[in-house]
Structure to design on (128 residues):
């Protein structure tokens, strides 16, 4: 290998997305054709309502269950990924094996570890 990281392997939990996403796209195209061809005013209202409820639901779920950092090592599978440098938000390493990625974002790990992220960002911000 040339040092390039491996592509993530699909898991069973993501396998259903391979069917769900194209089905949703075909459904959206079908509903669009129905609205244009038959011009039912009630169908436009239903679609608009579903989109509005979906958007509000997405915001509510994102606010109530924020993302957590994935500390699983892509090399050994252990929950031991940490930041390379505690003063940086870039660069990950595994404490269980020799895996490291100096270009990977460590922002979510920093959010979990640091009480105030402003201390990490302020020294890099241009003054003016």
């Amino acid at each position: 290998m040339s040092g390039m990281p491996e592509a993530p392997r699909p898991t069973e939990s993501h396998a259903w997305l391979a069917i769900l996403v194209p089905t949703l796209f075909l459904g959206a195209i079908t509903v669009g054709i129905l609205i244009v061809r038959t011009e039912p005013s009630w169908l436009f209202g239903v679609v608009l309502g579903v989109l509005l409820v979906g958007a509000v639901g997405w915001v509510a779920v994102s606010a109530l269950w924020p993302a957590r950092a994935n500390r699983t090592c892509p090399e050994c599978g252990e929950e031991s990924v940490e930041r390379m440098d505690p003063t940086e938000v870039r660069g990950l390493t595994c404490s269980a094996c020799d895996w490291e990625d100096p270009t990977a974002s460590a922002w979510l790990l920093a959010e979990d570890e640091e009480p105030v992220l402003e201390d990490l960002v302020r020294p890099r911000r241009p003054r003016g």
